[in-house]
Amino acid sequence: MKTNRGFTLIETIIYIGLFGVMIGGLFASVFQLMQNTQGIEEKVVIEEEVNFVMKKIDWLLNDLKTITAPVSGTSDTLEIINDDNQSISIRLDDSKIQICYNAIASCANEDFQNITSINVKSENLSFTYLESIDDSPVGINTKVTLNGRIVGLNKYQRP
Questions:
Q1: Nearest partner of 124 among 99, 149, 158, 159, judged by Cα
Q2: CA dist., res. 158 & res. 67, Å (int)
Q3: Pairwise CA distance, residues 130 & 39, whole Å
Q4: pLDDT of the residue at 13
């Protein structure tokens, strides 16, 4: 009697084919996982930058002493004087939020610095003067669209 101790050519081809399908599925899964991780990391970076911009504006308005513009209604530029008598201007220029500190006079174009990076697309920056009601302090409502998300902030002048 003759016994066969190995694989036939057809069995070997089938096993190689199954192994190839499994390896292909593994590579596709790993690629998809890497792609999803990169997308999540980009969203986290953008969210951190959006939070930075809003916290920076909030921090600037913490020392709010006088609102010089707008004095009523809504404007795309905010001009305030802080507790140190420093003039601060915030504006939107070409999808970038810019800020200027000046102790003496109003800011020139070259005095403004960007507080947003290339990862943040800013649109529709507006500052609304909040009228005083019943001896409450006046304030500023800030709204801006950052990467398609509308964010806002109310800050009141200390009496």
A1: 149
A2: 11
A3: 39
A4: 92
Residue 115 three-state SS: coil
The alpha carbon of 20 is separated from its chain's Cα centroid by a whole number of angstroms, namely 44
How long is the chain?
159
- Phi then psi for residue 99, to 5 deg, are -135, 150
Q: With contact defined as beta carbons under 8 Å apart, do 62 and 77 qualify?
A: no
Tell me the per-residue pLDDT of 69-86, one tens digit each, with 9 for 90 and over. Answer: 888 888 888 888 888 888
Domain count, the chain: 1
| Contacts of residue 86, Cβ cutoff 8 Å, sequence gap at least 6 | 101, 102, 103
Residue 30 in any domain: the answer is no
* pLDDT (tens digit per residue) in 121-130: 888 889 988 8
CB 155 within 8 A of CB 61: yes
Domain that holds residue 91: 41-156
Report, in angstroms and rounded to the nearest whole number, the Rg of the chain calculated over CA atoms.
Answer: 29
CB 125 within 8 Å of CB 103 = no
Q: What is the DSSP letter of 157?
A: -
Any domain includes 5: no
Q: How many Å apart are CA 144 and CA 124, to the nearest integer?
A: 5
Q: Are 98 and 77 in contact (CB under 8 A)?
A: no
